[in-house]
Amino acid sequence: MSDDPIRGGLSGDKVLLGGEATEELYDQGSFGRPVDGGLQLSLVEAAYLLDRSRIAVRLEGAELDFRSFFEKATAIEAGFEFRYVVYKDLRERGYYVQPGVTDFRVYPRGGKPGKTPAEFYVRVFSERQPVPLKDLVEPIKVTRQMRKRLMLAVVDEESDITFYEARERELKGDMKVEVGGGTATLLEDRVMLWDPESSERIHEGGFYGKPGGGRLQLSLVESAYLLEKGLLGIVDRTGEPLSLEEFVRRSRSVEEDFDMKHLVYRDLREKDLVVKTGFKFGSHFRVYKRVESSRKVPHSEYLVHSIPEDHVFHLPVVSRAVRLAHSVRKVMVFARDDGGMVKYLEIGRLKP
């Protein structure tokens, strides 16, 4: 390898190098993309190589130092500085990194472009950047179709990087329950089942509600599900029976996001999972694969939070949720309505 830098020119959002770059940079280091008689580098690749004096870049006859090139690149390509931080970090960890259908594609350690498939597609975000749900759903679909994994690289204000993996998750439990019987009363924002025998049967049979004094207190979503399945009758405080439609109407007036929570709760229960409130963990639900007995409750496996189709993620909030879930040995899952079907999006910490 020559000690002299390979010379090229900045043209639009690419740096073009001569033919000698192909062997030294592309064949040996998998930098750039061969074009007619030369090598084409992305701006982040060029900045990385320029900082290491591997290349020299000219613009309109003048040679650019690293600072000048970096400042021009940030003006040409939105988010360049974040992508550069991530590209540099991954390269210095020993990964081969190339521009891809997302921001980058990353090859497994020991792998190399042309010899092994890429393992990850990478999306880069600033911690301050709001992320619409669709900006995660589409890359997840692409990575799944291409049999890759999606890495989210979040760059904070000090240029430290936190890596996450985002993927669709299938949830399935092993809690086959058939419980029922009794009539409960809708109070202000919860439902009370008064009969001790019915209370014990429903609680022990499906881990519904919170027992106390021979009675069973049920949440609105639990009650709606049991009413919908014909496993519980509900009356108001005057003793007037409530239809499912009337119960849902009243629940909406108490709980703004009741419909979404109800949809997700129903789906989780239909997947044979046990669902309880996740309030203490900052999410809608904590979810168990199975609960053998109310006297010996295991750790829940998942924290599930319901989000609408137009949800926008704020990354500091996501960071807190994922870190909390990890600290209590659970998986953080976001549930969304996809055309009447519930889809589950898992986001977890990743250590490249």
From TrEMBL:
GO terms for MF: tRNA-intron lyase activity
Any coiled-coil regions, as ranges: none
Domain tRNA intron endonuclease catalytic span(s) in chain numbering: 80-163, 258-344
Record InterPro entries: tRNA_endonuc-like_dom_sf, tRNA_intron_Endo_cat-like_sf, tRNA_intron_Endonuc_cat-like, tRNA_intron_Endonuc_N, tRNA_intron_Endonuc_N_sf, tRNA_splic, tRNA_splic_arch_long
Active site, per annotation: Y288, H299, K330
Keywords of this entry: Lyase, tRNA processing
CDD domains reported in the protein's UniProt record: tRNA-intron_lyase_C
Annotated tRNA intron endonuclease N-terminal domain residues: 7-70, 184-248
Catalyses which reaction(s): pretRNA = a 3'-half-tRNA molecule with a 5'-OH end + a 5'-half-tRNA molecule with a 2',3'-cyclic phosphate end + an intron with a 2',3'-cyclic phosphate and a 5'-hydroxyl terminus
UniProt EC number: 4.6.1.16
Entry keyword Transferase: no
Record's subunit section: Homodimer.
Function in brief: Endonuclease that removes tRNA introns. Cleaves pre-tRNA at the 5'- and 3'-splice sites to release the intron. The products are an intron and two tRNA half-molecules bearing 2',3' cyclic phosphate and 5'-OH termini. Recognizes a pseudosymmetric substrate in which 2 bulged loops of 3 bases are separated by a stem of 4 bp. Endonuclease that removes tRNA introns. Cleaves pre-tRNA at the 5' and 3' splice sites to release the intron. The products are an intron and two tRNA half-molecules bearing 2',3' cyclic phosphate and 5'-OH termini. Recognizes a pseudosymmetric substrate in which 2 bulged loops of 3 bases are separated by a stem of 4 bp.
Similarity-based family: Belongs to the tRNA-intron endonuclease family. Archaeal long subfamily.
Protein name: tRNA-splicing endonuclease
